[in-house]
Amino acid sequence: MPTQHPALNTLGRAVRARRLARDLTLAALSKRAHVSERFLIQLESGRGNISVARLCDVAEALGTTPSVLLEGVHSDSPEFVALVGMRGAGKSTIGPQVARTLELPFVELDEEIESAAGMSLGEVFELHGETFYRRLERDTLRRLFREGKPAVFATGGSIVTDPETYDLLRRNAVTVWLKARPEEHLERVRAQGDERPMRNSANALVELRGLLRARTPLYSQADHVVDTTILGVDGAVGALVETLTVTKPAEAPN
Fold first, then answer.
1. 107: which strand partners?
2. What distance in Å separates the CA atoms of residue 43 and residue 161, rounded to the nearest whole number?
3. Residues 224, 81, 7, CA angle at the centre, nearest 5°?
4. Is 161's pLDDT higher than 90?
5. Whether residue 59 is found in the same domain as residue 177
6. Separation of CA 191 from chain center
7. What one-character DSSP code corresponds to residue 140?
8. How are beta strands 106-108 and 80-84 bridged, if at all?
């Protein structure tokens, strides 16, 4: 079986991310772009060697351009890995272990944002508000992708609620949803020393369940899902490394 070219993998993720962001089914995109659903499935999986003309058709149907879909395509650059999920999913625990195994740096996106802002996240929200934070978050991601240094990212839990930023993330990185039960999220946050969930413990779990339920359709758009409740930390690390190793295109023999 021929090795999938990394450029096709990147393009496929970009098309899928854009389609999901616009709430298009495969059937709807097929009709708009005048290509078969089977071809779109191959394209999104990185197995569709699309012509320039067909790429223009698909891009137009997605309300974008071929150049936007091809952002992040570099034949010699490894893929970024971005961990998404609610706070307490295990991103800051599992991420560093995965990064060490893959021999990649581990990056906390929130720390990069704080560095860019010159202040803490709390101060960013208090002084400038959420709109400023979202713009800074997006600009920071763009800078990291532009620098082209492969890494494992831990993202903020709410990054999926900003369509433009989440689209940027999915177009340029292999995204992984670290999934857990609401009870696990709450227990882990408290174990980290955050007393806020305990101030109103009667409603904390109810609110968390509602938030997780609302975000689940967004988190589900990630390339892969790893259930940390079922697997635990060590199991999740192993499963994630295996998934990413299989996903990453093999090098051509000399």
1. 153
2. 26
3. 90
4. yes
5. no
6. 25
7. H
8. unpaired
Q: Angle 121-147/109-117 helices, nearest 10 degrees?
A: 110
- Proportion of the chain above pLDDT 70, given as a percent: 86
What burial letters (b/e) apply to 28-42, b meaning 16+ CB within 10 Å? ebbeebebeeebbeb
Residues 16 and 102 in one domain: no
Task: Give domain status of residue 1, yes or no.
Answer: no
| Total domains in the fold of the chain | 2
Tens of pLDDT, residues 85-101:
998 888 989 999 999 99
Q: How far is the first Cα of the chain from the last one, in angstroms, to the nearest whole number?
A: 17
Per-residue tokens: 75: 């034949």
Interval 24-40: pLDDT, tens: 899 999 999 999 999 99
Sign, CA torsion 158/162/163/165? negative
Question: What CA–CA distance (Å, rounded) separates 154 from 90?
Answer: 9
Q: Is 20 helix (H, G, I), strand (E, B) or coil?
A: helix
Q: CB neighbours of 40 closer than 8 A, spacing ≥ 6?
A: 15, 26, 29, 30, 33, 48, 58
- Cα–Cα distance between 7 and 11 in angstroms, integer? 6
State the residue range of the domain holding 22: 6-69
Q: How confident is the model at residue 44 (pLDDT cuts 50, 70, 90)?
A: confident
- Run of H or E including 84: strand 80-84
**Cα–Cα distance measured from residue 170 to residue 70, given in angstroms and rounded to the nearest whole number:** 12
126: CB partners within 8 A, 6+ apart: none
Residue reference for tokens 């989440």: 166
**What is the CATH classification number for the domain harbouring 25?**
1.10.260.40
